[in-house]
Amino acid sequence: MAGLEDFSLRRIDGIPTQLSDFRGKVLLIVNVASKCGLTPQYADMEAFYRRTRVRGFEILAFPANDFLGQEPGADDEIASFCSTAYDVTFPLFSKIAVTGPDKHPLYAALTRALPEAVSAGPMRERLEQFGIPVSPPGEILWNFEKFLIARDGEIVERFAPDVGVDDPRLIAAVEDELNKEA
User: Fold this and answer.
1) How far from 46 is each of 30, 37, 115, CA to CA, in Å?
2) Would you call 167 exposed, middle or buried from its count of C-beta atoms within 10 A (0-12, 13-18, 19+)?
3) pLDDT-based confidence at 20, cuts 50/70/90?
4) pTM score above 0.70
5) How many Å apart are CA 99 and CA 107, to the nearest integer?
6) What b/e readout covers 24-51, taking b as 16+ CB neighbours within 10 angstroms?
7) CATH number of the domain encompassing residue 55
8) How far is it, in rounded angstroms, from Cα 50 to Cα 135?
9) How far is the first Cα of the chain from the last one, in angstroms, to the nearest whole number?
């Protein structure tokens, strides 16, 4: 998986996991939050996941409390929220930092590999218009930023937080990867 397989992770239920456990799958890695204006994306993500997982697609969700404290809960609270509010069945991981000095090494690798997200400019402008401090270019802009990973572990694309899984650009990119041989 082009270096990504070496990452050790912890699922939200505490079970240790390696990213290599997802070898051969197309991945969408997303930093998530329960109290964000973009939180309703969970519903579309779950529906998309249920339609595509049989084709070798996985969404890996990483709760993070990096943006205005929008993910304040502990792992068990986050898991309960995702289950009861959105019936999430895709893998959820323990809360991590996705920006700043405590950034998880996975996110350091992702942002280093692809420093710019598709359509980040308009999202950045909207946040700034509301007086919300934004991360510097190259860093995760906000909750629900997405990284598309090919079956071979190549980081294919990065999408701004407001590019949902129903966006034609994201759908086309995922379909392109799913149609490639493992």
Assistant:
1) 12, 17, 27
2) middle
3) very high
4) yes
5) 8
6) ebbbbbbbbbbebebbebbeebbebbee
7) 3.40.30.10
8) 32
9) 12
Query: Among candidates 99, 36, 93, which has minimal Cα distance to 68?
Result: 36
- pLDDT-based confidence at residue 53 (cuts at 50, 70, 90): very high
Give the domain extent around 95.
4-178
Sign of CA dihedral 4, 8, 10, 16: positive
What count of other Cβ atoms lies within 10 Å of the Cβ of residue 182?
A: 10
Split into its structural domains, the chain has a count of: 1
Residue with the two structure tokens 């270019």: 137
Q: Scanning the structure block, which residue is given the tokens 């990284």?
A: 147
What residues are labeled active site?
36
Beta bridge partners of 159: 118, 146
